[in-house]
Each structure stands twice: as structure tokens, then as C-alpha cells.
């Protein structure tokens, strides 16, 4: 059992509380030298448990029962090692680093063996401002980090606390799409140099990055297809393979006009030969176009004074409001619907399936390796048997049915009328 060392004599293993409130443990290394470390334990009992674990591991190694393993790194060291070993073609390094930042903030100086599933759940519970999907991504990044230490780096052997914590429940929602009857007004609200890339995304289902770096050499107007070889930040598309997407006849005039622009890119910046950068703010462009086209979800009153900063919740209609802090007349801002450039792609996928009922066609054009992804996200049209059953049920439950009509009868036939009671005229 780990005990606090007596004065003048050190008993291995041991655990002691420091004046700072943290705990220091000691054990005997496999070579016989003393080992010490300040651990982020919360209680003396937890520190003693860690000391006993270190002593037991050293004893097993010293007696040849288990092979000698390098020292277990801290989470900070593990994250640095993970990011340094990513291959050059790993395109989402920045996103992974952003997610691992939350793991470092919670467990930076700790070692993986000291982290439990309860600690991971506590970390996620302290992030209520993040969406469930983002919290699940953070958990998965931590799980991948521990798996990397176990399988690739061989620096840790033990349970994966991020895996034991379980998945974060993420609600499954339908993909958002543009109303087809609003599309003409939406494109009228776009500036001229934004209409062609938006139309390409809408009529071919290409991603934002694929549209941004689309090359003229890969646009084959005679054969009516576009060869997609890059996804913007990646050397390949998101699926890791090149693919061809068909060019509809409606898109040919717009692409023909773009072929006459400067440079090798199909959609360069206006008046230049350079493409838009990775931070192309086309999502903001689409949001402003939604406001001009009337695709709004409400109005938000706010105070024009920056020093005040007051704003209220979204309301259905704009009216007369006064700032409660500075008593100035409030201004109203139209809040666009949650529709951006990427939803042009989802609009194509949803409409294509509803028109053709061909799941393989939609998956091939969108570049999905798994048809289940296409089915879950884009097969939103109700099957014919569901519509037929719903119509039959509605006819049986219709509250507007005339009196004397039997709901069990089919063909719209009316039942016999009720006989007159005695005394009725």
C-alpha cells in the first residue's frame, strides 16, 4: 500500500500532499532508481492508487513479465506527437487541432492512464454551448488520440476512456433545401459573378471547394461532363477519388461564358485570373441574397449604438420597439433562413431522388462511397404506398364528411339516411 514517507526514510511506493494542494507520488523504477511525479489527483487515495500502479508496472518490467515500454506521455505531449506525425495529404489538420484543443484544456498535464470515462463525460458536460454533433466530434478526436498512442506509437496500453464514455446522442434532422419556387428570386438577388458558381452547384451537386477550384481544362462541354479532381484544400475530392458529373443543357450557356474569363480557373475573381481563396465567404453572400429574396425566418430588434449592444429575440413581424437600456428607437434586422451555399448541393440531391427515385444515380453524382449516406440524407420523398395509405386514412377520418356517409364504404357512396323519428315533420 502506498503510504506517506516517514521523515528520513522513503518507503516505495508513496503518495504525499504538497503545500500547493497537488499530490506527488514515488515508486521504484525497473532499474532500481527512484521515480517521482506530481500527478493531478483529486484525493490522497487516488494518488496512492496511481503510485501502486506505477510500482506494479515497474515490478512486472523488472522481472521480465512485461516488456520495457517507453514512458507514458501526457495529453499535451500526445497531441503534439499526433499532429507532428500527420501525413502531408491530411487536409483536415486544422480542424483536428481545433477539436483536440478542448481535450488539452481538460486533461493537458494528465496521462491517459489517469483519465476515466467519467472524466470524459464531465468534460463534455462543461460544453453546453456546443452542438451535440460538435461534442461528438471532440469525443471522437480524443478516442482517436488514445488509439494512436496504443496502436501506432506503442506508448500506452490500457482502456480508451473516450470510447468507454459512449457516443453523444446527435439528433438526426432532415437536410435543409431551398424552396424550388423561390430559386428564381434567389438568383435574381445574386450579383452577376456569383450566379454562375451558384448555378453550377445547384445543377450539378458539386461542393463549395470543388466549385471554387474548378479548372477549365476539366470542363468538357461537348461531352457534357465535368471532371472533379480537387476539393479545394485537398489534392483530391472529399471522397479521395476523381469523379465525373454531368452538365445539363440549362447550364451550358453559363459555363460557355465562364470559359471566356481570364486564367485557368472556371470561376476566378472578377477581373482577375486568380481563384477565390479558402476563406471564400460565399455563405455570407447567399445569406444576404436570401434576405433580398424574402427567404427570412423573422426580424430581430437591436440598438444601433455599439456601446449599448442590446438585441432581442427574433419576432415574426417588425414593429415599433424601444431599446430598454438607452431608450432609443430600435432598428430591425431581417434574419435569413438557415440556407447557405452548401444547401444548393442538398437541394440537387433531394430533388434528383424525388424525380428519378434512383438512389445509385444520386450517390454517383454526389460522390458518396456508401449509398446508406445518400439514403439517410436525401431520400426524403415519401413512398407511394405511404401516400396512398395516408389518403385512405384521411378519407376514413375526415371531419368534413357529410352526414349520412358511412366512412367504411368506398367509392364515395352515401349510406342510408337515418329514419325520421315519430313526430318529425
TrEMBL record:
Residue ranges of the region described as Disordered: 394-425
PROSITE patterns referenced in this protein's UniProt entry, alphabetically: TYR_RECOMBINASE
Alphabetically ordered keywords of this record: DNA recombination
Molecular functions per Gene Ontology: DNA binding
GO biological process annotation, one example: DNA recombination
Top-level taxon of the source organism: Bacteria
Alphabetized Pfam families for the sequence: Phage_integrase
Keyword Plastid: no
Sequence ranges assigned to domain Tyr recombinase in this UniProt record: 173-391
Entry-linked InterPro entries: DNA_brk_join_enz, Integrase-like_cat_sf, Integrase_catalytic, Tyrosine_recombinase_XerCD
Name of protein: Tyrosine-type recombinase/integrase
Taxonomy of the source species: Bacteria, Pseudomonadati, Myxococcota, Myxococcia, Myxococcales
Amino acid at each position: 500500500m502506498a503510504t506517506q514517507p516517514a521523515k528520513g526514510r522513503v518507503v516505495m511506493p508513496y503518495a504525499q500532499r504538497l503545500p500547493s494542494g497537488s499530490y506527488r507520488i514515488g515508486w521504484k523504477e525497473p532499474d532500481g532508481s527512484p521515480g517521482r511525479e506530481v500527478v493531478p489527483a483529486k484525493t490522497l487515495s487516488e494518488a496512492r492508487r496511481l503510485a501502486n500502479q506505477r510500482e506494479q508496472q515497474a515490478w512486472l518490467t523488472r522481472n521480465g513479465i512485461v516488456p520495457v515500454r517507453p514512458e507514458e506521455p501526457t495529453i499535451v505531449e500526445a497531441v503534439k506527437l499526433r499532429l507532428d506525425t500527420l501525413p502531408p495529404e491530411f487536409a483536415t489538420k486544422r480542424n483536428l487541432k481545433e477539436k483536440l484543443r478542448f481535450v488539452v484544456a481538460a486533461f493537458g498535464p494528465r496521462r491517459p492512464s489517469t483519465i476515466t470515462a467519467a472524466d470524459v463525460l464531465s468534460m463534455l458536460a462543461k460544453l453546453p454551448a456546443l452542438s451535440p454533433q460538435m461534442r461528438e466530434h471532440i469525443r471522437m478526436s480524443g478516442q482517436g488520440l488514445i488509439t494512436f498512442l496504443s496502436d501506432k506509437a506503442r506508448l500506452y496500453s490500457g482502456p480508451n476512456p473516450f470510447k468507454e464514455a459512449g457516443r453523444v446522442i446527435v439528433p438526426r434532422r432532415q437536410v435543409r433545401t431551398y424552396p424550388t419556387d423561390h430559386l428564381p428570386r434567389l438568383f435574381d438577388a445574386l450579383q452577376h459573378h456569383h450566379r454562375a458558381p451558384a448555378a453550377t452547384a445547384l445543377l450539378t451537386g458539386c461542393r463549395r471547394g470543388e466549385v471554387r477550384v474548378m479548372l477549365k481544362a476539366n470542363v468538357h462541354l461537348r461531352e457534357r461532363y465535368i471532371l472533379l479532381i480537387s476539393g479545394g484544400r485537398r489534392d483530391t475530392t472529399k471522397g479521395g477519388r476523381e469523379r465525373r458529373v454531368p452538365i445539363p443543357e440549362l447550364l451550358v450557356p453559363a459555363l460557355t461564358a465562364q470559359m471566356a474569363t481570364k486564367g485557368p480557373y472556371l470561376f476566378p475573381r472578377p477581373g482577375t485570373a486568380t481563384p477565390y481563396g479558402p476563406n471564400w465567404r460565399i455563405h455570407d453572400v447567399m445569406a444576404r441574397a436570401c434576405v433580398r429574396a424574402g427567404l427570412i425566418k423573422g426580424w430581430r430588434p437591436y440598438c444601433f449604438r455599439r456601446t449599448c449592444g442590446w438585441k432581442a429575440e427574433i419576432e415574426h413581424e417588425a414593429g415599433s420597439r424601444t431599446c430598454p437600456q438607452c431608450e432609443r428607437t430600435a432598428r430591425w434586422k431581417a434574419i435569413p433562413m438557415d440556407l447557405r451555399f452548401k444547401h444548393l448541393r442538398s437541394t440537387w440531391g433531394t430533388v434528383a431522388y424525388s424525380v428519378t427515385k434512383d438512389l445509385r444515380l444520386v450517390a454517383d453524382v454526389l460522390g458518396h462511397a456508401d449509398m446508406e449516406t445518400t439514403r439517410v440524407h436525401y431520400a426524403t420523398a415519401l413512398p407511394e404506398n405511404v401516400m396512398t395509405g395516408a389518403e385512405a386514412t384521411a378519407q376514413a377520418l375526415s371531419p368534413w364528411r357529410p352526414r349520412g356517409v358511412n366512412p367504411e364504404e368506398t367509392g364515395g357512396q352515401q349510406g342510408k339516411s337515418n329514419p325520421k323519428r315519430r313526430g318529425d315533420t
